[in-house]
């Protein structure tokens, strides 16, 4: 063996799969924002007959991305994504803009207070956000609020809370795809 190999260890040969590979900023942004927009559009495919059952998937995806990957989205992104959700959801225009922007600010506040947290704290924060969103969206919609309509929103609320771990798993999978290294063209 050569003396330098004895002192510093054997030379590492770079893995061929890693040569000329970089993260694509286009792919990273497209997967991040495209998944939220697609999730906002998805509930329009389902028809609910007499009461709201389908949870606000776009909102849950926004909360999932924000809680799972804190530094990926700026705080102001609630405005344009909320506007897109308003176009798909049928809510009065501006309701998702307001609620999504307030959510982004609330999550910023939450992260400043609880910087080290686990999955259960994220699930609790997602559940509180989903419950607040469902009931505040009901308030903003202009519907006559009474006991029957509050009871009718309970299945949507419960489904939103139960769906958060699935959304978090989807965000983790999409994040791996988003950060995939692709060949850099010179």
Shape: globular
Structural class: mainly alpha
* Helical proportion, percent range: 55-70%
Work out the number of β strands: 2
Over all CA atoms, what is the radius of gyration?
21 Å
The CATH class is: Mainly Alpha
Beta-strand content bin: under 5%
H-E order = HEHHHHHHHE
Total domains, how many?
A: 1
Distance between the termini: 37 Å
Within the largest sheet, what's the order of strands? 1-2
Mean pLDDT: 84
CATH topology call: Arp2/3 complex 21 kDa subunit ARPC3
Residue stretches low in confidence (pLDDT < 50, at least 5 long) are: none
> How does CATH name the architecture?
Orthogonal Bundle
Q: Report the total helices.
A: 8
Main sheet overview: 2 strands, antiparallel
Describe the protein's architecture and organization:
By secondary structure, the chain is mostly helical. The chain has one domain (18-178): Orthogonal Bundle (Arp2/3 complex 21 kDa subunit ARPC3). The chain contains 8 helices and 2 strands, in the order H-E-H-H-H-H-H-H-H-E. It has a two-stranded antiparallel ribbon. The two termini are 37 Å apart.
């Amino acid at each position: 063996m050569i003396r330098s190999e004895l002192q510093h260890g054997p030379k590492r040969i770079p893995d061929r799969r890693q040569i000329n590979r970089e993260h694509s900023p286009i792919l990273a942004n497209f997967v991040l924002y495209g998944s939220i927009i697609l999730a906002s559009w998805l509930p329009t495919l389902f028809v609910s007959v007499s009461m709201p059952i389908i949870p606000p998937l776009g909102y849950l995806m926004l909360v999932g991305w924000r809680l799972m990957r804190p530094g990926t989205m700026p705080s102001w992104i609630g405005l344009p994504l909320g506007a897109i959700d308003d176009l798909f959801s049928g809510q009065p225009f501006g309701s998702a803009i307001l609620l999504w922007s307030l959510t982004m600010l609330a999550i910023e506040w939450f992260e400043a207070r609880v910087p080290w947290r686990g999955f259960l704290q994220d699930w609790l924060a997602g559940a509180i956000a989903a419950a607040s969103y469902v009931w505040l969206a009901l308030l903003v919609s202009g519907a006559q609020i009474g006991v029957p309509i509050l009871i009718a929103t309970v299945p949507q609320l419960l489904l939103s809370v139960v769906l958060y771990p699935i959304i978090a798993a989807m965000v983790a999978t999409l994040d791996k795809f988003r950060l995939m290294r692709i060949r850099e063209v010179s």
